[in-house]
## 1
Amino acid sequence: MAEAAVRLDGVKQMIMTTGTPNTSDRGAAYLTECARAIRARVNLPLQAQCEPPDEFVWFDRMKAAGIDSLGMHLEAADPAVRAQIMPGKATVPLSHYFDAFEAAVRVFGWGQVNTYLLAGLGDRLETLVQMSDRLIQIGVYPFVVPFVPIAGTALAHHAAPSSDFMLALYQQIGDLLKRAGMSSADIKAGCAKCGACSALSMFEK
Ligand code: SF4
């Protein structure tokens, strides 16, 4: 199928995500297996997305299977917001994410690891900017995206962030990216490369 997508549709990259599987590897084993199968058929840049696995040796295995970049998504920055919005996922402390980020950057390379930050869930502007700064400093691209309420979900009535909030956020994080020389264009595969959910790439240049 990936072969046909490349040949017939001109697909240039592929993203595989997991959600939150109830396994200690957080889906890394399955992603590794999928990447190996895809890479056996077609030369297509791949991003895998999962939560930090229990053993960081999974990053080496993922890379060896042909995964080019990795997404591990914080979603929110402030521990209090994380606990309120996603009580399950918030049980994984930020310190574990940062250990995983550093280990993943050593394997995938500077700027080839990214994380989703959803603006509008309750994080203050300064908190998101400080978190992005910290991420960029260790080689992780902060993919900042506006929260969009979706009918029928638990957050259907949660307000989306204002345009002014997003503009200020994009400008400040764009400046940090420029200063660091980090760009979504250099990411081999992934959401930041696609960019459809965020206007951040317009502020990197
Ligand atoms: S940026 Fe949005 S549209 Fe693009 S791959 Fe990621 S989730 Fe999908």
## 2
Amino acid sequence: MASGVTTETTARGAWRDWHAEETPIRLGVSSCLLGEEVRFDGGHARDRFVKDVLGQWVEWTPVCPEYEAGMGVPRPTLRLIDDGDGERMVAPSTGRDFTADVQDFTRERVEGLGEVDGYVVKKRSPSCGLERIRIYGSDGHFRRKNGVGMFTRALMERWPLLPVEEEGRLNDARLRENFIERAFCRNRWRALVKRGLTRKRLVDFHTAHKLLLRSHNETGYHRLGRLVASFGERPDAEVFRDYEAEFQNTLRTKGTAKKHANVLQHALGHLKRTLGPTEKREILTSIEDFRRGLLPLVVPLTLLRFTIVKYDVDYLMGQLYFDPHPKELMLRNHV
Ligand code: SF4
């Protein structure tokens, strides 16, 4: 790198400015995805993106529900069985019912997972899968394919706002970006709570996330604004509690090209008196090209960020929307 040149952004609203070393980004993960040999046959399911790419930025809390529930390795393959009296986990080769073992372990284990920022689970597993898990009858016949792994279901029931994704779905650029953005947002919230919530800190937090929230859910963004404005009318603890729930709930709605384009145009509006007609036209064209799928999000974002820094636009300099997670993950190069 040339001397004196840095590739770090000079805007204030960078994820690093909000990151607290004492609150590292922590993700739960199905152990086999990290390469641990805990699958029924003694193998693993190491996922390159999870282990090698994401792993550079997060600390893991690995869990293998079947192994840790005492089933050992190797072990018989398991199935979810449903005869109308609730789902059971059974080894079809022996008929042994492992439901109680998994449920006992799960109840205790998920309780301690409130301090993670997200969770990556292994697809197609009757314990860990997020969706489309095969359900059988006790007669051995296939019934339906809309089950959720027993451990993951309990995890999501206990922590309904926790971002949870399957490793397979993380191959989809939009789902990947959305999951990681939510995890980083949840981590910033946890760091804020650890520092101690005050009215001023919550207002600063909300202000920095404004454009990011709007790229997910405009209605949720307005609800959060009203919550922040209600300080003084309600006990602070109630406002903090409701803000946390609404913040994470708002982020659950996925961003779309249309919503991002609207946010980018809104940001451009803050520069209308600053930019000349050529600059304005070039940025507008890149936003429109992004909306039409001709350019990735990173292009209009980079153009806008350049002008924000160049003209020192205070409000936009503080917006995390322009830098919500490490650029090395290149999450916005493909959405
Ligand atoms: S139970 Fe989950 S973590 Fe364990 S091997 Fe199966 S998919 Fe992997």
## 3
Amino acid sequence: MNRRDFLCAGATVAAAAMVLPGLAFAGGERTTVALQRPDTAGGKPLMTCLAERRTNRDLGREDVDLPTLGALLWAAWGINRENGRHVVPTAMNKQQVAVYAVRGDGVWEYLPKEHAIARVLEGDRRSLFDGSGLVLLYAAPREDRFAGMHVGSMYQNVGLCCASTGLANCVKFQKRDALDSELPLPKGWMTYISQSVARPR
Ligand SMILES: Cc1cc2nc3c(=O)[nH]c(=O)nc-3n(C[C@H](O)[C@H](O)[C@H](O)COP(=O)(O)O)c2cc1C
């Protein structure tokens, strides 16, 4: 899907699709796409998802559609309460984690407050990882001793979401930091782990 189609798709699926103004990116505004809210009454029963959660390395190359991307990112790091807290707990509620989605049309940062994605890098970087349709990157401060626990909660939620939607996924340590020198990570942050997600081949 090219940039224009992606933006159009975003406009179609989002209840209130918009390009959020004023977000600085490399001296200009960055493209932001609102995501559809996940259906929190849908999906398979939790116990079925737990029973079906597994690694599948037979990952397709097609982009994950935007509604599914919205569900996956919400499962990883969405806000699930009016007090601004998340689906994943963090030590002392410090919330020091970030999720990036590596897609065919660029690398996007998840904005949980807006439930939106903002492009931080142009171009298809998926071959830097394993070429799967979607690669999620989980980042946190290098010195945070809780970071591994936080990102582990996130990839497990996504793994369960994949089980619910029939997507293949694989958590990968190898090549996880392939984009760290290009991502607009806060100072002292790093990518701890990646997770490839796609329709099974
Ligand atoms: C922290 C972590 C790092 C992993 N790194 C890799 C990796 O670099 N490459 C890979 O192919 N699989 C990787 N895996 C997937 C594991 O090999 C897989 O989860 C394990 O074989 C158990 O299989 P299951 O997920 O189906 O239970 C990783 C899994 C975890 C939890």
## 4
Amino acid sequence: MTRSVDLVVVGSGAGGLSAAVTAAAKGLSVTVLEKAEVLGGTTAWSGGWIWAPRNPVVRRTGITEPAEAPRRYLQALLGNRFEPERVDAFLAAAPEMVGFFESLTALEFEAGTAIPDTYGQLPGAGTGGRSVIAKPFDGRKLGEAIELLRLPTRETTFLGMTIQAGPTCAPS
Ligand SMILES: Cc1cc2nc3c(=O)[nH]c(=O)nc-3n(C[C@H](O)[C@H](O)[C@H](O)COP(=O)(O)OP(=O)(O)OC[C@H]3O[C@@H](n4cnc5c(N)ncnc54)[C@H](O)[C@@H]3O)c2cc1C
């Protein structure tokens, strides 16, 4: 049987599914190909924190900053691998991406108001308010499709539940 679609996405991690959802929202027909028996890839095992400075979820908590600050941080971090055009594109698209997913999908975010940047000694490093994480989601809403989700690892769970840093959990 031959099937025709506008876009084929290979892989069902954050990269693949973000592309698939975005394309579908723009009206394209999409097929996602996944080689594993479950969905989610490495993303399903990750901490789930998304570094997206100046995003709307964080701004609603009252934290605002000019793009110059995270840009300075990335410049210090990346050194001679700093590519201004790509960094500026990322800094413009990251808040847009968060806004897109919270307005067009069932995904809701919590703001990491006290999650500092990893390299706090660098110029432009933030002390919180540049990250978001998905809010807890009632898996029962997925029905049988919940069986398709990759389970978390034994090392990161307690009694089957993922051990997770909350939005205000700053490392000591
Ligand atoms: C323990 C842990 C914690 C982490 N915490 C964070 C965090 O808090 N924040 C953060 O930003 N990053 C974190 N990371 C890193 C982050 O998880 C990865 O960078 C991210 O998930 C990569 O996403 P991806 O979509 O590129 O790949 P993946 O999520 O790995 O998805 C790739 C998918 O493609 C499939 N695939 C591969 N080849 C084929 C093929 N030929 N045909 C079909 N399917 C194929 C794979 O099976 C997989 O499902 C963490 C990583 C780990 C391991």
